[in-house]
Amino acid sequence: MNYRKDKNGQDLSILGFGCMRFPRDSKETETMILKAVAEGVNYFDTAYIYPDSERVLGNILHKNGLREKIFIATKLPHQKCHQYEDFDLIFNEQKARLKTNYIDYYLIHNIGSIETWNDLKRMNIEKWLSLKKQSGEIRNIGFSFHGIQHEFPALLNAYNWEFCQIQYNYMNENYQAGTKGLKEANAKGLSIVIMEPLLGGKLANLPKKGADVLNSADIKPVEAALKWLWDKPEVTVVLSGMNSKEQVSENIKIASETSLLTIAQKKAILEVKKIFQSSYKIPCTGCNYCMPCPNRVNIPGGFASYNAYYANGLITGMQQYITSTSANDPENNSRISRCTGCKLCEQKCPQHIKIVKEIKNVKKRLEPFWFNTLMKIIAKVMSGKKN
Ligand code: SF4
Ligand code: SF4
């Protein structure tokens, strides 16, 4: 296993274990975790809202006496926090589930915009974080991000973060925080944890044409995607949501190699990107030149979700759309339905996309008549409110 130092000089395995989707069989989960730890993986990422993940992870670590050998990252679900006392209520529940007295890496989960952070500040989250840090119950403080690229710098500057977690892979260089955000976070001295390195599995299961291109450069799809990330010195840990023993073995093998991508392999990855992009319904490159929109519309996020809808189906497209536009947040969302048709964005698009026309198409597919009801239900569940 290879390691990289975090901001405070701690050695973290470059491969982190993403615990969002453990297998149903808890014995298999235990076997995978034991193997990962034995092979040197020391970073485990979970969250309050990942179904049963904290409890399962806590039980396995406790039963096998592994707590002190690894680092736990988990996240505060800020939507469930309505007052200062809620921070402690949730945190104490997390410690109980994880059977631990401290959390190594604690993230505010998916802050999409500075407004969300300001809401938390009004609840005195800074004081709470500082007290937890002083007591040693939280060792490192960070945030995860799925928002719009131009919101990212303001969040980086909003607090003295030690690390952040961003979605990033070779197809998302201009999406969400993107390469620009990666460099900004690095310039501020933060350790950077990467999620979605395989774009929800799509970069592991390439169309045949793409797989053939990589094959001719003597590299497999997962290896290409992971090494593309580890090629970047700004990256500290790459999370992989492993849910089989085979995946654990394959990822550990790649994370233990010292060879980097060859020039031919880098060229092959560029070729795969072009193959992906040629299948897009809207030829949006995610360059962000059209942003910011005066009405907060996440134009590239909406277009990327629409392309995902056509490439991978309704559920994938819808999931991506809800996440990238915080669609279930009644106030701070960036849904495409906020568009007033002013066309300011169209003058800035180098691809000459008829943005307003395409937004109407996106709205038809990704905000169907039942969408608002669904968002209200999700918002209610996330906030834990009964009414
Ligand atoms: S046309 Fe719509 S998306 Fe474009 S800038 Fe105006 S409001 Fe924003
Ligand atoms: S400027 Fe055009 S290509 Fe770039 S993100 Fe906006 S819509 Fe997409």
Q: What does it look like?
A:
- The chain has 387 residues and is α/β, with parallel strands linked by helices.
- It folds into 2 domains: 3-277, TIM Barrel; 299-386, no CATH class.
- 45% of the residues lie in helices and 12% in strands.
- It has 15 helices and 10 strands.
- It has helices at residues 26-38, 53-63, 84-98, 114-122, 125-135, 152-158, 178-187, 208-216, 221-230, 245-256, 263-278, 299-312, 314-325, 355-366, 371-383, and strands at 3-5, 11-13, 15-18, 43-45, 71-76, 103-108, 138-145, 163-167, 191-195, 237-240.
- Strands 3-4-5-6-7-8-9-10 form an 8-stranded parallel barrel, surrounded by 5 helices. The protein has a two-stranded antiparallel ribbon with strand order 1-2.
- Helix 3 (84-98) links the parallel strand 5 (71-76) and strand 6.
- Helix 2 packs across helix 3.
- The longest helix has 16 residues, at 263-278.
- The model has no long low-confidence stretch (mean pLDDT 93).
- Residues 293-295, 297, 299, 339-345, 355-356 line the site of one iron/sulfur cluster (SF4).
- One iron/sulfur cluster (SF4) is lined by residues 284-290, 299-300, 303, 348-349, 351, 353, 355.
Distance between the termini: 49 Å
CATH superfamily of the largest domain: NADP-dependent oxidoreductase domain
Q: Provide the gyration radius in Å.
A: 21 Å
Bound molecules: iron/sulfur cluster
Unreliable parts: none
Main β-sheet description: 8 strands, parallel, barrel
The shape, in one word, is globular
CATH class of the largest domain: Alpha Beta
- The structural class is alpha/beta
Sheet-strand content, in percent, reads: 5-15%
CATH arch. level architecture of the largest domain:
Alpha-Beta Barrel
Can you count the beta strands? 10
Quaternary status: single chain
Question: Helices and strands, in N-to-C order?
Answer: EEEHEHEHEHHEHEHEHHEHHHHHH
